[in-house]
Amino acid sequence: MAQSSQATGGLVSIPALLQRNAQGFGDKPAYREKEYGIWQSWTWKDVQREVDSLALGLINLGVNEGDFIAIIGGNRPHLYWSMVAAQSVGAVPVPLYQDSAAEEMAYVLDHCGARFVIVEDQEQVDKVIEIQDRLHQFQHMIYLDPRGLRKYDHSHLHEFRHVQQQGHAARDEFLPELERRRAKLDMTSTCVMLYTSGTTGKPKGVVLSNRNIIESAQNSSDFDSLGAGEEILAYLPMAWVGDFIFSVGQAYWTGFCVNCPESPETMMTDLREIGPTYYFAPPRVFETQLTNVMIRMEDASRMKKWLFDFFMAHARRVGPDILDGKPVGSFDRLKYKLGELFVYGPLKNTLGFSRVRIGYTAGEAIGPEIFDFYRSLGINLKQLYGQTEATVFITMQPDGEVRSDTVGVPAPGVELKIGDNGEVYYRSPGVFEYYYKNPESTADTKDADGWVATGDAGFIEEGSGHLRIIDRAKDVGKMADGRLFAPKYVENKLKFYPNILEAVVYGNGRERCMAFVNIDLSAVGNWAERNNISYSSYQELAGHPRVLDAVQAHVEEVNRSIAEDPMLSGCQIHRFLILHKELDADDGEMTRTRKVRRRIVEEKYNDLITALYDGSERVSTRTEVTYEDGRKGYISATLEIRDAAVQSGSTQKMAAE
Amino acid sequence: MNDMSTEGYVTPDGRKIGGVMMEMKNITLRFGGVKAITDISFDIREGEIRAIIGPNGAGKSSMLNVISGFYVPQEGEVWFRGTKRPQMKPYQVAQQGIARTFQNIALFEGMSVLDNVMTGRLTHMKTGMIAQAIWKGKAEQEEVENREVVEKIIDFLEIQAIRKTPVARLPYGLKKRVELARALAAEPKLLLLDEPMAGMNVEEKEDMSRFILDVNDEFGTTIALIEHDMGVVMDLSDRVVVMDYGKKIGDGTPDEVRNNQAVIDAYLGVAHD
């Protein structure tokens, strides 16, 4: 390549990194995918061949520089190559969430004006065909899996392999053009466009340049000294910035191997087989895994249960210190080694964490219990804080300074500042270029000096320099008596109980706080089974008086813990109810990344909120639900509302009532 | 009613159906004094999805058992690909390329899904029992080849996640799918499905319908099925045979059958004015 860049040694685009990897360690595995029960692998040389053929095929199909190519499907090596092939021909890859509703998909595809769409299989082909009348620029679709598509009209439909074959056949004709386009790429060219899941309003297209991706990948790889020997499992949605930075940015920068699971359902088995060294999962995944371990231990023989309890108690006491390299007595060390032999080692192996050197979690707050459980086993689980607009990294926890209540120190190259209203601002090489076709939002988010508002409220802890996040800045409000209202803070405390899957707290501008609760069907269901409580549905279990008792105990415990913090003591929950249905992305109540859309929930269940505040003991309601295939139905229920005990602080006005 | 030429025909959705694959000529089957099937003739063509419908006790399953060679009819002839079938054991019929699933699931409950599906390859294995027990050379190579076929089917039917799960632990809908997988593992020319959707919910039925269509489309397998759900039958099949009390009372495309008065009376109920 002709250009050079000081910082990254001429490696100014992902295709350039691919060329370096193919030359530097061409025979090392770059991708693996489990197919037909066997892990198939591709070396970096193979990958370059595949990407080149596809890139030539795309030119052959008429892709121009600056075109947008949408990519829809699960984590498949071929779809990752599609992104790099798109970049190679000067186009911009736009990965989309494959499970998004037709409506969302139509909006995004039309907004970016994708002329080409690359999809995984028939399901996505059907979805795009369904909405194609609304897409003004859409021309061609390329699919990976030909199954069930034989009878389709192929005038605008192409099979992935055929596109590659045609590209390969026309190699002599198009190679100079491909090389010309590839040579034009530099640090300022667009690397990828990712749509934010949109907790509020329509999704926004975040444009990230090669500089954003490559420098962020470089900085974060250095931070954790990631090398070419890492193994990761790519199982999170490709449309999410984290997957792009881990499975493309860092993978191409360091040359490590990306493993794709066989199907979403086999992910846990595949995780075990691969044994990644570098692993990312949202708190929910760790939570589910821990719940499963606990449920299975309940059913284990007494001897095993005793061993587990005995050594886990020891691990909780000394495990995190051993991991952090703090001094621990030699007897405790020996006991920990025994535990490793009998409990921790086999457990880590079952979970697929035997080889994890660095694990990260982010996106939501993780329960201290859960976090400590993994760390006490000797898994180096850390937290990071980031967002799409920052190309992931804002803060990260360095080894040895890991805690469950902070999100770490600024990542390399990141500057932080806290606004007057407590909002966190940052500036970094990863700061996005702009929102596509949305200059107003760009101006709202990013100021002239490059500072970006995160939308989160937080503070930097004195002494350690770690950032602590309290809540979304716009959700932090005031109670009627002027005390701070931070719903997320309370919700997270509730969600740390395995029985509680989701909670939504209300109280902004009111006298008292109220809460909706979703129970965790697998945890509560298991408890019900052991206690001979029969139930036929979520709704029935959620309305069971003993379930309500259990949740009430959790709420009261949370109230006691909140009362300890004078700043937030007003957020104690006075009354709550258990919702008759699980909050669901299909109903628009959550985003695809499973964050609650507060405003929509508030509007939809307005009758329930009224009932919480007017003191009634039960409330009847009827709710519309959307099934996965788009059909709609209704469920009706009568919900019991419970009062929870609150701690009266010195400033409590409630005491007077 | 059956006016298609011997050359085959083209379905409304554009699939080409070939010549006659299997022909049943004047079949009569008796159990002692009970006549299960009386003088029935029909054919199944290459690449076709052929349904056999009828009220309970009409003789549908008996008919399927005649096709699969499990019952030998007292009268009539079964012709398969141009030759008349002599007296045969069911496994010999299977070797001819006819595989089936059962109305009541007949899997090995204690074995894993993978092992169950592997049993479907039995007719394709040439090495003997002892060679397989020692598992050297040819037997090993053969196992690898067969496993490859089986894995493609597992992938096709999307049952990767339960590959190693014992069948006894699976829900009903998945067991049905495993049974289909085992039948497909034999790489049949003709696949017989005995009530593939009985006892399924709407979603499972939709999945199963898609798999049946995909099997036909992808492997070109001819399919004969018995089914009670009329909606499914009318959507899936190219031609339908209607039976009542062991007799054939209708034969033709779903539309023809739907408008056949005898069928409406016997099967779908007589309108009382």
Q: Overview of this structure, please?
A:
The complex is a heterodimer of chains A (about 650) and B (about 270). Among the domains of chain A are: about 210 residues, Rossmann fold, CATH 3.40.50.12780; about 180 residues, GMP Synthetase, Chain A, domain 3, CATH 3.30.300. Chain A is about 40% helix and about 20% strand. In chain A, helix 1 packs antiparallel against helix 2, helix 1 runs parallel beside helix 9 and helix 2 packs across helix 6. Chain A is globular and about 80 Å long. By secondary structure, chain B is an alpha/beta fold. Chain B has two domains: about 180 residues, Rossmann fold (3-Layer(aba) Sandwich); about 80 residues, no CATH class. Chain B is about 35% helix and about 25% strand. In chain B, the strands form three sheets. Chain B has a six-stranded mixed beta sheet, sandwiched between helices. In chain B, strands 4-3-6-7 form a four-stranded antiparallel beta sheet, with helices on one face. The N terminus of chain B is likely disordered. At the A-B interface, loops of A face helix 5 and helix 7 of B.
Structural features:
heterodimer, A: 657 residues, alpha/beta, GMP Synthetase, Chain A, domain 3, disordered C terminus, B: 273 residues, Rossmann fold, 2 domains, six-stranded mixed sheet, 10 helices, 25% strand, disordered N terminus
